[in-house]
Amino acid sequence: MKRRTSIIISLVLTVCLCVTTSGVYATPLSELQDQIEQKQEELKEGKKKEKDLSAEVNSLEKKIYELNDQIEVSEDELEVLKKDLKKAQEKVDKQNEDLGGRLRTMYKNGSVGFLDVLMNSGSFSEFLTNIDLVEKIYAADKDVLEDLQDAHDKIEKKKNKVEKLSKELKASKQAAEDNMSTVEAEKKKIAADNEKNAAMLDDLENEAAAEAARLAAASQSGQTSSSNTSSYGGGAFAWPLPSSQNVTSGYGWRICPFHGREFHGAIDIAGNGGAPIVASADGTVIRAGWNGGFGNSVQVDHGGGLVTMYNHCSSIAVSVGQTVSKGQTIAYVGTTGSSTGNHLDYRLFKDGTTQNPFSYL
Questions:
Q1: Most buried among 156, 191, 294, 345, by the most CB within 10 A?
Q2: Which neighbouring-strand residues pair with 344?
Q3: DSSP code, position 334
Q4: Strands 343-350 and 353-355
């Protein structure tokens, strides 16, 4: 995000030190810098908000996933309990049906039918034995019924509890889904605002970087830049990285891992770390050193308004003011600054405006 800002600051300082009429250029560049810093802050806050919303969406998705699992478990358990309850009710019903009319009467009245027992007894001793058996049968049947009913009631109670839990889980899931829809809508809006701000920031940074590069070239020769007054007659530019032709990112709009959607005013050429980088044409070095997000960077003024820029170098082999020849080694491939791997970020300016390098190579 701060790559071009660092470039602008450095180039502005160069202009202020080397151009006697630097005040002419200080106002527009400072205004651009103020706008850039403001837009960077807005984009930084927007990106943070978008990141926070993404984390919230992920958290809600995880919660919904967990609730789905819990609902599935509760519904499976509920099906089992329904089957168990049905079986328990069938046992209770069967036990009632198995009881004889006499025992059911005894159960309802809570007493023993002495007359029936007496009528069916051959003797008094048999009567005593029969009445004892009746009482035992009655007590046993009563205990069985009570146990069956208790089991039935417990299952029903558990089923009601699981039904309530399942209902609560479904309500929680619905609430989480509604919340996620709201968060996703907000995230989408923030993302759109961020993309708009990023595009505006790209325009501002490209404008400021181009102007700063033009002024830096002008400062090298005093009030009048050789780039603006002399013509370029060196023919086609040389390929800046002889050891590799692998272009990984072309000139134009792209998605940058550091800044999101941006206008890429360069071509990226992948290369081995330490591979020689050469000057594309004869010229004078107008910048050589650390340049913020560009890392170690070299700029060469070729005259006729043409300036080339070589970025992310591991090290630099030239110094400011040095005259270089076409094909001369000026730096080495690296991954300094805002870079995800060894490569050369190669830029070309015409009168301070970036150009597609392939138009000159």
A1: 294
A2: 269
A3: B
A4: antiparallel
Amino acid letter for position 126: E
Structure tokens at 18: 């080397």
Rounded to 5 degrees, what are φ and ψ at 107? -65, -40
Q: Look up residue 199 and give its two tokens.
A: 């595009």
Give the predicted TM-score (pTM) of the model.
0.44
Helix (H) / strand (E) element for 103: namely helix 101-109
33: closest CA among 215, 211, 293? Answer: 211
Report the C-alpha gap between 218 and 350 in whole angstroms. 13
Q: What is the largest CA-CA distance in the chain?
A: 144
Which three-class secondary structure state does DSSP give residue 227? helix
| Lookup: tokens for 326 | 């076409």
Strand partners, 348: 308, 355
**pLDDT per 10-residue tile (average), the chain, 361 residues:** 48 37 37 74 88 90 89 84 78 66 51 55 60 65 72 79 83 88 90 83 68 59 45 84 94 67 82 97 91 84 91 95 96 89 92 87 91
Task: Say if residues 112 and 135 touch (Cβ distance below 8 Å).
Answer: yes
Look up residue 347 and give its DSSP letter.
E
How many angstroms separate the CA atoms of 52 and 50, rounded? 5
Instruction: Report the alpha-carbon angle 345-308-282, nearest 5.
Output: 130
> What are the tokens at 87?
């079986």
Count of CB atoms within 10 A of residue 204's CB?
21
